[in-house]
Queue: 2 jobs
Job 1
Amino acid sequence: MMKPGIPKILIFDAGGVLYTLDYERKWRQLEQASGRFYEDIRDVLYDDEFIRLERGLIVPEQYYGTIVKRLGLNLSFDAFSNVFNSFLVKRERMFSLLDRLSSKVRLHILSNTNEINARRIRYDIDGIPAGMTLSHETGLRKPEPEIYRVALDRAGVSPANARFIDDMEENVAAAREEGIRSHLFGGEKGLLRFLAAEGIDEAQA
């Protein structure tokens, strides 16, 4: 039985919390494949089409077709997907922490992401029980308040019974506006202190 005062659910961001974001990996591979400089590649990858992808307004194959054409890439969809996901560097200690926490409290992932990156996230988290609210499935993106409400509704909890962890100040501030006690992630030690203060025994340093 859960002890009084312990939150019923922990809501984690993915990129920047569960993963280190190493964009250099992506830039290097796409520079070699396209002969373009990373500034040009970045502008093509992260324009309005990327936002449409993250909102689920286009499917990955459409995005892929646009990027391949604009950058002159000779990559199959699978090869492009591997490169596109290469910046996600799994934080093994964070996934181990999630695994431990799953026996104490329910877990949920709330992420601005797309179907290509989400496939990698689902693969990595397989075996750890966690719900998910993803931008490309909802049409909403943090820090829009509605996406936090969707996550809470899916989890069946009130804001008071949730805790949120994200590495972006604007996302944390938006969650707090919704009444969710939140932690700005800056590293594992600070997170452990936050979780310990919330009464989650496994999280104590």
Note: The beta strands are 9-12, 19-21, 88-90, 106-111, 131-134, 162-166, 181-184.
Job 2
Amino acid sequence: MRRVLRPALLLALVAAACNLQQGTPTPLPTPDAPAVEFLSPVNGSNVFEGTDLTVELVARDAGAGVARVELLVDDVSHQEGSPVDSDVVPVFTVTMNWLAAGVGRHSLSAIAYRADGTASPATVISIQVVARE
């Protein structure tokens, strides 16, 4: 004899299975966390070794405001900037520099911070340093 599940019972089983979770749920990103972006250089740029590369960043935080921005080169802290007129600002544009050293690909990362230490996700670009001929 063949058993047939009734549609209502089948629907209840499917709905119950959709509510099961295994492991740790993935946290949702905080929509009001600070954010930072590179205005220059452009991702994938080529620069000659020895160039004093200008790095322009803009950080935004409509909530608590931006207290500082950190620039990392190849995952090593390189330079920091903070607003001059106030401890925190909603929009902060800063110009930093990096003396392009070491032929090859390098990553530049920027992180914006609130005064309480809350950090933005890192924004990363790649720069190719080429030898002068």
Note: The CA atoms of residues 69 and 81 lie 5 Å apart.
